[in-house]
Amino acid sequence: MSNTTNVLKIDIVSDVVCPWCIIGYRQLEQALKATGTAYEINWHPFELNPNMPAEGQNLRQHVAEKYGVNKEQSEQSRNSMAAAGASVGFEFRFTDDMRMHNTFNLHQLLHWANQQGAMHDLKQALFAAHFTYSRDISDHNTLADIAAEVGLERNEALAILESQSFSAAVRDAENGWVEKGISGVPAIIFNDRHLVTGAQGVENYTRILQQLAEA
Fold first, then answer.
1. What pLDDT is attached to residue 5?
2. pTM to 2 decimals?
């Protein structure tokens, strides 16, 4: 995007294992297209489960423990998310053996991808890897494969994951957003001033974008 005052700056704080993050982004994307808004998107790290062990946890078990929901409520939530995703062209394929993962390594890989101009593409690929294809995003080789699929160097991706070379940078970024009051995602900040949380829907995002344009 060109660097003019008419370009809307959008910062999105999110986690790859957050279903409403990809739903919210896709809703916003449709609203941006509908309004013809010029924009630039910057993705930022947030961990829904920073204490999750490396091997992860069964997703249904995790949801039951964290939110106190039973299987029927979990199923209703999955159906709701699947319908919301389908409405904006994203496919959720929930399975009984699906797992929740620790995402710190993913955020390190995304930090590196940002230096290559490929953060957005990798972010979208990771959402699909987790929610659509149930790939093991805790596995370094799987993550390196996904990086290669969006045009990044696989061996370099693997080396970054093994060395943890961006751990401090990611931790600093995460802490910075927490210090700014971000406690849940998606958190979308327009032009460094206007915070919108959650998946608001295409119509609401369209209205927000129109209001920002008028302002």
1. 62
2. 0.94
